[in-house]
Structures are given as structure tokens and as C-alpha cells.
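tool=predict chain=A
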Amino acid sequence: MKYNVQIYEDNQGMLMIDVPDEIFLVIDLLLSDVQEDGSKIWIDVINKVLSKQSSYEELIGNACTIEIKYDVTKIVNEYAEEDQKPYCLIETAELKQILLKWDDAVKNKYAE
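tool=predict ok
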């Protein structure tokens, strides 16, 4: 994976994630939209673009919209403050890897 991504549990047992500043909105996407429900729907849509079944897909969550193209995905925070950058770009394949890593962390958290 290109980015240094750290997933951990905070003091209250909630999954958290640290990512580089350049892909800062991955945090909002995971914590607000994906949460601990898993990222199956997000990965399915990304796979549709990566497999070239579609050239563009868009998913709208609670806080973020992702605009998926084959090479790059734009994550837009719909509630960005005036002084915040409202979007970031991430390679689509890298976003998929982060989502898979998140799913693994969720599974490990609830493994018996």
C-alpha cells in the first residue's frame, strides 16, 4: 500500500484511523459513512469501475460523496467548513486497499 494507514481502537473501543494529510477525507468517509458496518457496497462500486464495467460511479454517504474513476477517486466532504479543503484525491486502487484493511480491522475487533 502506498500510504501509511494506521487503524486502531481508541479508549472507548471505537475503531479509528490515521492517514496522511493528502488523503485526510478517508477518515471522514470511514468514520461517518462506512463505520463498522463494513465497506461491501463501497468496494462493489469501486470494483465495477476497476473492472471497467463502468467508467464512472458515484456514491453518496452521510458526510461524503465519492466520485470514482478508474485511476483516481475524489472524496468530497459535503459539510466542509469554510476554512477546510472540501475534497481530496486518492488512487482508486489505494482506496480499495484501505477499505479492505478497514474491513479486516472490523472483523478482528469482533472475532471470538
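The CA atoms of residues 2 and 102 lie 15 Å apart. The two ends are 28 Å apart (CA to CA).
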